[in-house]
Amino acid sequence: MFHVVQYRPLRLITQTSLSSMCLKLVLSRPAAFAQIWKSWFSRHSLVGNKNIILMGPPGAGKTTIGRIVGQKLDCPVIDIDDDVLETTWNMSVSEKLQDVGNEQFLEEEGKALLKFSASGSVISLTGSNPMHAAGMQHMKKNGIVVYLDVPTAVIMSRLKSMKVDRIVGQSPDISLKDILQFRKQFYKRWYDIRVLCGGDIAPEVVAEKVLDAVKRYQNSELETFISTRSSRSGRSMEKGCHKYFSDVVTEGLAPDGGLFVPERGLPKFTAGEWQSLIEATYIERAQVILERCIHPADIPASKLAEIIGTAYGENFTCSKIAPVRHLAGNQFLLELFHGPTASFKDFALQMVPHVFAYCIPRSCNYLVLVATSGDTGSAVLDGFSRLHDTDKQRIAVMNFFPEDGVSPIQKSQMIGCQKENAWSIGVKSDFDFCQTAIKQIFTNSDYTGFLTVEYGTALAAANSINWARLLPQIVYHSSAYLDLVHQDIIPFGSPVDVCIPTGNFGNILAALYAKMMGIPIRKCICASNENNVLTQFIRTGVYDLRGRKLIPTFSPAVDILKSSNLERYLHLIANEDGQLVTQLYNQLENQGHFQLRKDLLEKLQQDLVAGWCSEEDCLAAIHSVYSTTGYILDTHTAVAKVVADRLQDRTCPIIISSTAHYSKFAPAILRALRIAEINQNPLSQLHLLSSYSPLPPVHWGLLESLKKKENDDHQVCAADMSVLMSHIETLIQNHFM
């Protein structure tokens, strides 16, 4: 067996002589001893007995980077090619490949790995090692596998300059590019940590990134979450009660009524790291971005890849997942409606149920509560109904929606999406009541404690108050910018504006987070309908609900007066002053209004501008765009289009978030297109729209939902907290007991 513990001979030192030497050093040069001890402890705690295993394609720089990392850590460095394979075979790797051929070479290479053992070392694998499963399983037992992720175009350029003319698997019928692409599946299977490596990045810089990534991997306690309402003094007193990603996914709302945010903020990507994702697919971009936002101690990279693949693999009608389409002039549409329920909510809610199922403890049942203004409901129901059967037995979802505050098709969707673990309840009130009721239920410790003790069931949230809901939205805003670069619309680094129809502030907050992470977004334009509380707030700094009543509009998903996610943004611009946030929201709750300080309003207006759109202008925009382009905007996108036309300065591209498919709002669309006779049957309305051969086509998922005859009924209840809690108890008894 090939065994390496140290790479160079070491002088044997007895414990007695070592103690004597340390004592002399402490007495004679205490400062020097402290520095040496600190340096040794830092290296030892980083590596210990574990190996750092560098993996990546040929030309990724594994050998060079391995030597630099080993030098920085003062630990052994082993190159599998030079120090193991060629030593074992007594011939060069290229000679062995030529001698035995591709398949036998992989087998011989794997056998050599199985006989290899080392500890506390930096190991550089060959490009083909990951293709031997047993060998890699053996290596992972005592190592942290670091994937040096280099763009394929960069690798091909490097291999050409290195005059590498053959690698394992290459033949006259198979190109080098195809081999490199094929191998990615094996790299993705084995790594613990990914390090993005651009084209012109120096090996020394990559080595530092490797060390930083390993430190992060071994220090999950650094990635904790706090409440937007926690004071700085309170945090120091609560250090023993850290909240991690898994906790905030499970709990949803903080115990003090605030929202969870990462204590150290979001990760930053360099320009080079973003540029390395320009050629990537949507799923690949999502994997890279979310790996940096979710610690592997919460969800390992391999499990995260499985979740992302399940969420976006087959459930979206467009292979690009979130395509960017040119509309007119400098305006582009980010189409977010290709998921199974035809709205942007699918991006989070095809993924979050699987994240939730992975993070929650197995010892408890969970009831997920959600309030919806229209689109969230069907997306939550659909997402949680796609869980594995074993998960559906311990996770159920209850959706509350305003009975008369959603479109007929949205209501039909929510009713049609009911499954054995997913139910919808109409409430005789508006969305704000539903959302406030859920928050009050979560903060009612007597009630939640009763459910846990009596029924063994905990409550969880799936609204955008849940941190996990925001992360997939950061991905599509980032991906949209990268698509414009990929399409040669702009060079990387050039700014764009984004215009987003929003009521609860979650979607636009995700764009702001993407900006913080390094995407060159200049301004975020908040587009409101006639419920324009957010627009007034962004313009004046005054959030005022006094005398305001919710106005039902053609764009019901933004018919919201109390904007939940605004709290996270205020916490951010207030430099994490939880006491100020608490004060503002207590004032809003008790007096119906609050006003930002001047300095905070100035900060806010550096990021945000806002406008609103009337019902007439919304319908006119739909008609105008269809007349000139043949493209049908949904009502929410039309609101954003109107506001974008008014506020953009045309000095850079503007990306308009198309948050829902027009099929969901067929009566308003037919009215906008000036079609006189409108059948009241939702299915007939979609067939009528389809007859116009519109762009994009009518959404298949909606048609399927409306065709379903089962589960065609739902419960309706009064706007009363005790009634809602009674429904929750009944559902728990029926599903879990």
From TrEMBL:
Keyword Transferase: no
Secretion signal, residue range per the UniProt entry: none
InterPro entries per UniProt: P-loop_NTPase, Ser/Thr_deHydtase_PyrdxlP-BS, Shikimate/glucono_kinase, Shikimate_kinase/TSH1, Thr_synth_N, Thr_synth_N_sf, Thr_synthase-like, TrpB-like_PALP_sf
Co-factor requirement: pyridoxal 5'-phosphate
Protein name, per record: THNS1 protein
Known pathway: Amino-acid biosynthesis
PROSITE patterns named in the record: DEHYDRATASE_SER_THR
N6-(pyridoxal phosphate)lysine, modified sites: K345
Record has Amino-acid biosynthesis as a keyword: yes
Annotated Pfam families: SKI, Thr_synth_N
Family, similarity comment: Belongs to the threonine synthase family.
HAMAP family named in the record: Shikimate_kinase
GO MF, one example: pyridoxal phosphate binding
Keywords: Amino-acid biosynthesis, Pyridoxal phosphate
Superkingdom, taxonomy of origin: Eukaryota
Organism per entry: Smutsornis africanus (Double-banded courser)
An example Gene Ontology biological process: amino acid biosynthetic process
GO CC term (a single one): cytoplasm
Taxonomic lineage from the root: Eukaryota, Metazoa, Chordata, Craniata, Vertebrata
Domain Threonine synthase N-terminal: residue ranges: 241-312
